[in-house]
Amino acid sequence: MNPERSIGNKYGIDLPNSIPVIPSWRLRDRMKTAGIGLIMALNVGTDPPDIIKPYPCAKLQCWMDPLSVSRAKAKEKIGDRLEKQYSKFLQQSQRGGTLDPTVEDVRGLCLWLRKQARTERILLHYNGHGVPRPTPNGEIWVFDKNHTEYIPLSVSDLRQWVGKPTIVILDCSSADDDDPIITNMDTAASYWVKDTIVLCPTSEGEWLPMNPEYPADIFTSCLTTPIPIALRWFIRQNSISMSNLQIDPDFNVDSIPGQPNDRKTPLGELNWIFTSVTDSIAWNVLPKPLFQRLFRQDLLVASMFRNFLLADRILRSLNCTPQSYPPLPEGVADHPLWLAWDLACETCLFNLIQDGILGDNKDVSSPFFSEQLTAFEVWLEYAAIHKGNANHLQPPEQLPVVLQVLLSQVHRVRALELLKRFLELGPWAVNLALSLGIFPYVIKLLQSAEYKTVLVNIWSSILKFDPSCQVDLVKDKSLVHFIQPLTQWAKQSGGGGGSSNNTNIVEAAKQRTLIAFCLAATCHKYPNAQSECLRQNLHGSCAELASNDASRFQLLSPIAREWICMCIGNLVRSFHLGQTQAYNTNVHLCLIALQQDDDNANVRAAATYALSNLLRRGFSPSFSGQQPQQQPRRRPTVYEDRRRIEFDLKVIESMIKVLADGSPMVRYEVIMGLSNFVEKYLQAILVVAEDATRVVDVIERLGNIQEEQHGDDNYNNESNTAHSIESRKRVVSLPRGVNQMNMERFEKCWKALRAIQHDDPHPNVSEAANVIVRVVHETFYDMRMEEEAKIRDMTKSDHGLSGIQEEGEVGGGGEGIDRVKSVSNISMGSPDFKRNVNIFSPKTMPRSDGPSHRLPKTNLYPLRRSSSEAGGGNFPSSNVGDETRNIPAMPDRNLIDRVKAENLLPKSEFYKWKKSIFRPDYDDVDLEDRDDRDPLNPLGAARNYQNRRNKIVRREGLNIAHHFQILRNAGGVKMTSMLKFHSYENALVVCDNEDFVSIWDYENGVRKSSFKNGNPTGSRMTTAFWINESSTSLLFVGCDDGSARIWNGIVENNGQISGQAPTLASSFFAIPDMEPGQRSSSGLICEWQQTTGTLISGGNSRHLRCWDMTAEKCSTSIDIDTNSCITALTTAWDEDEAYSAVHNSNGFRGTGPEIIVAGLSDGTLKLFDIRTPKTGATFNEHGSWIVDVSFSSFGSSGGSQNEILSGSVAGDIRAWDIRSSSRSSLRAIEVQRSPMTALSVHKKIPIAATGSHAQFIKILTLEGETLQVARFHENSLPGHRIGPVSCLEFHKHKLVLAAGSTNALVSIYQPRRP
To answer: Which InterPro entries does the UniProt entry name for this protein (predicted)?
Structure first.
């Protein structure tokens, strides 16, 4: 097992680049059939003149022999039977009919039905068995009043009478002749489906079947009584298999026990299977939009088309070609699922006959549904193998069957489990299931407690795909089924779960995560859901779950804590009452604790997201406005709610502390919180920004006067100018009700924002802060311009105006400001006026110190008042810069409208990002770890390569002999201050003394890539090392301003050195209090422990900080108790020990990872134990700057890594035993007389290399024996002296030395081969 703790790229916030699946499952317009009209042209006893019927011939109409009674009674009974058959599909509808009708009878029936149905659909059934077949001109036949002649009826007239929408059933020969006239084929598909639907048994020129084994109205029988005709046809088609059952083909289906609508009986189950099969066939052959309209829009239309599929199969076997509009695709009659229906029929009949219960009301179940679920499960196993490309799979044929199975309690649990697995395949699967009609079932089943566990998974997939389902949850009052489990679990005692199964505990924790996700998705930007969740105390339950003091909280995984925080955030987002309740129940304290103390960066970011939503400007429900003429009552401003201000300031101050967090994701969310804070308290922030600008104005104005004026009146001019600037009226007045103490706290927030704008090492974080500052400065600048316009307009209109003052209105949420709109006794020609104009000129515009371009003025002011409203026209060109021309005044513009009108302030996308990557089927094992175990997966293949590579390199490193030959030069590279070999690839990192980094293939002498680290001008890089060398390699670079950056993409997973510029994986301040640019200081010095994932950072600071890089937070801070800076750090980490079967597997020998040795600039060595804040032993024999310090595996302590080696600038190397109480060195080696500028000790063999500015490199043993001194280049520049040595680096597993100097060369030394 690989003991390495991988520190990967977890910091990107880019959304997936896949093409999104747009929800298209909702029906925009539902419809119902409100009336049924029957036109029965039977003429019982008289055959039509255009046909000669054979004998015997089909004669049954509605399953009765019309010749068994008189002609008058026969047609009445047939009409009653047909009406009764239709009533099974639609009981509450207007039904009417006419027997052997005339034209007027048909007209009256159609007009009456349309009047009753209004805009709903009408079904018109025409039976033309007693009249000639339709004419090619589109005419059907009816009778005259005396029933002696056939009268043609134009289908166009019929269509005009019946109106739209309509479903027309033509049960007659050659019925397709009338189809084009009825449907009007030139209309679009979406229109004609809604307009007219036509079902016909025959095509043009075909006659109805006359087989005496079937009814004469076989088409009507298929549409209205599908089970009897289907069983009769099946028995006759399978006479051989049915012969053993000795069953009469003409048996009455009523002898099958049960009712068609009772699924627990054989007849009901058979009808249920028929519905499932026909739905599945339609689902697989029809386009999905057409399926939705035909099978999900209208119950009667769905039944008719479902039965029409059966009619198509039966009539084609009788040499007829049924037609429909819209037409069905080819192959419906031969679909493979019909075989499943045949098997179900055969099984049902066989079981009934075998058990001798045909006619008894007993339960005989069919294996159809269990078999179909098994087939669906097999498809899911296949889809799981191709999950990465699942959206290209064909939809499963059995999906409609799963929907039908949800109606049965016997198979419901299994069906829900399979449905859950199907929805986990991705958005395309969710869209398919919803299009099929799964939604009403899953929302109704929420009321059953036994299914809630699996339903939570299903609903998480649905809400992730289509957030609009939140409306349905609230409307159906189903939120209680999600909130109740959280509430119950929050109220449970923390110690009651000791005897529970660990699997149940993990599953319960996962359920809370999914519930929190569902609630967060429901509350997101939906006030009704927020109000309902607030009423049911969701915030209180989440606060209890998110409390670090509750022992049950430890059962929750980080992702559960993360989504609970986001649930709180979405609950209070822009919801004033929710924010108030959250503050009253101390929810913010729980979130602050998570934000500062949680070990997971995602949880801290989620807590920050929730806190930032607490700071969002909350809106209460607006009144209906019964009296629009009445003057609205003034609402209090946010500054008058002092308790709320105190809460908000406490939250924002806690967020400012998190700006030192190691995760840029957390810091970015803090900036989003500051953005919400600035938006809410814009007036106070503008006051702070104006004060800062006034100070800059005074300094710049006094500096300009000192340069421009020289004379006796210099002092007076300075005093007058300073006085005029300080005493001028404020552009932004102090908010009403805010005291000076609070203003100081607002100023603190503004300063923190400006500091992040300039100093944060991650560009996304600093740019977000820069946008906020620019918006504030732009708003203030435009207010200045408006004020200047007012002064000029009022002075131009009346030079004698005095003492006029106006106040801005309080608008919107109460964010109005009071601004002075005039000056007193100032004329355009007076010096005072000119001085004031100069103060407002663009030269004194506040600066954001970000990008030089301003925000577009049109975006800031989408709508402006006309200049006439301000009492003046455009600005004159004199005394005003070009930027102030043609700017109309805006005296009553609300500040929030200024900024929010174009959404200039950045807003958090944290929830959107997290939702996009959330998987309802998540587990505690990371996806990459699962992929690593699969050798066929690209990540697994890369991991196998890395493991093989690592073993080979380590074996070679362990086999290096203790002797070596003379070193030779192998080439040079650019000037550098740091070098770092990759342990397993031929990659060498070369850093200069500013911010340029190069990646070299040192075996071939080729530079593969280069990039700029991005540290501020004047700072320099002071530490660099590799992270995750044995797997996905990252490069850590630290600078003397305390910032650290982690770069990804330098070495690819297949071992190739990338030629592309790397990407920034993360950045943070390892030492926040460090001052850059001090050449006499060490800058940032770091030590990396790969096994524990710990970063130890020190340097030009009084603190030694230990960072948990997995959690991205500082775990320990130790005061080093000295004013000297740390120049070198080391621990007893040995990577090979982690893979050695002889020693412990933790990577340390003798000394554990908690012991840190630091070398200082005053020559002392100090031991620190990160488990305690106290300083350990001190070794102080060195008298100058410690160049390097490292643990030795070759000393007198037998390789137990209790011996350390240190070298100083004075040129001496000393060995120490950290266990010794004498605090004296074991041995001292005087290496050189000139200052030692570089030192490197090999990890595998007992040699060291030292460098000097005197232009030589010395190779020596750890006992002090000099092996070789290199003074000249050999191959590339023979005879040339090497430059002053700035750094040295031994390869960890190879006998290779890299040396950097100040003369623009880097040399690679390796043993001379004989």
So the answer is: ARM-like, ARM-type_fold, Raptor, Raptor_N, WD40/YVTN_repeat-like_dom_sf, WD40_repeat_dom_sf, WD40_rpt
- Which residues are CB-contacts of 1068 (< 8 A; sequence separation ≥ 6)? 660, 661, 662, 663, 664, 667, 761, 762, 1043, 1044, 1112
pLDDT band at 625 (very low <50, low <70, confident <90, very high): very low
Q: What is the pLDDT of residue 1185?
A: 93
For residues 290 and 193, is the Cβ–Cβ distance under 8 A? yes
Which amino acid would we find at residue 757?
Q
Share of the chain above pLDDT 90, in %: 40
Q: CA quadruple 1280, 1281, 1287, 1292: dihedral positive or negative?
A: positive
Q: Are 1037 and 1024 in contact (CB under 8 A)?
A: yes
**In sequence order, what DSSP letters do the residues of 976-1020 get, joined into one string?**
-SEEEE-SSSSEEEEE-SSSEEEEEETTTTEEEEEEE--PPTT--
* 56 cis-preceded (ω within 30 degrees of 0): yes
**Beta bridge mates, 35:** 94, 122
Q: Which residue has the tokens 């000139």?
A: 1234
Helix (H) or strand (E) holding 1069: strand 1063-1069
- What is the Cα–Cα distance from 619 to 750, expressed in whole angstroms? 25
CA–CA dist 193, 1078 (Å, integer): 79
With residue 652 as reference, give the H or E element that holds it.
helix 642-657
Q: pTM of the predicted model, to two decimals?
A: 0.79
Position with higher pLDDT, 698 vs 962 = 698
Q: Is the pLDDT of residue 1255 over 50?
A: yes
Note the residue count of the chain.
1314
C-alpha–C-alpha distance, residues 123 and 574, integer Å = 51
Contact 669, 908 (CB under 8 A): yes
Nearest to 1207 by CA among 1177, 1230, 1234, 1175: 1230
**CA-angle at 523, arms to 518 and 527, nearest 5°:** 155
DSSP labels, 741-803: HHHHHHHHHHHHHHHHHHH-SSHHHHHHHHHHHHHHHHHHHHHHHHHHHHHHHHHHH-TT--S
Please choose, from the candidates 1046, 1092, 1087, the residue with its C-alpha nearest in 3D space to the C-alpha of residue 4: 1092
Residue 926 confidence (pLDDT): 44
- The residues, ordered by sequence, that sit 6+ positions from 915 with a Cβ below 8 Å of its Cβ are 464, 517, 521
Give residue 1096's pLDDT. Answer: 94
Name which residue leads in pLDDT, 523 or 1273.
Answer: 523
909 pLDDT above the threshold of 50: yes
* Whole-number pLDDT of residue 430: 92
- Calculate the CA 1277 to chain-centre distance: 57
96 contacts: CB under 8 Å, gap ≥ 6: 35, 36, 37, 38, 109, 112, 113
Pure H helices in 330-397? 337-354, 368-385
CB atoms inside a 10 Å sphere around CB 729: 15
pLDDT, position 1177: 85
The CA distance from 1102 to 1117, in Å, is 10
H or E, element range at 515:
helix 502-523
Radius of gyration over every alpha carbon of the chain, rounded to an integer in angstroms: 43
Coil vs helix vs strand at 1095: strand
- What lies within 8 Å, CB to CB, of 714 at 6+ separation is 705, 706
Is 576 in contact with 531 (CB distance < 8 Å)? Answer: no
Task: Spell out the SS3 assignment of 1217-1277.
Answer: ECCCCCCCCCEEEECCCCCEEEEEECCCCCEEEEEECCCEEEEEECCCCEEEEECECCCCC
Average pLDDT over the chain, rounded to an integer: 79
| Sheet-wide strand order for 996-1001 | 978-981, 987-991, 996-1001, 1006-1012
Q: Which two tokens stand for residue 16?
A: 């997936």
The residue that leads in pLDDT, 625 or 600, is 600
Phi-psi category of 886—alpha, beta or left, where left has phi over 0 and alpha has psi -120 to 50? left
**Mean pLDDT value across residues 334-350:** 90
Strand 1126-1130, strand 1113-1119: pairing: unpaired
Phi (first) and psi of residue 180, to 5 degrees: -65, -35
Mean pLDDT of 301-306: 94
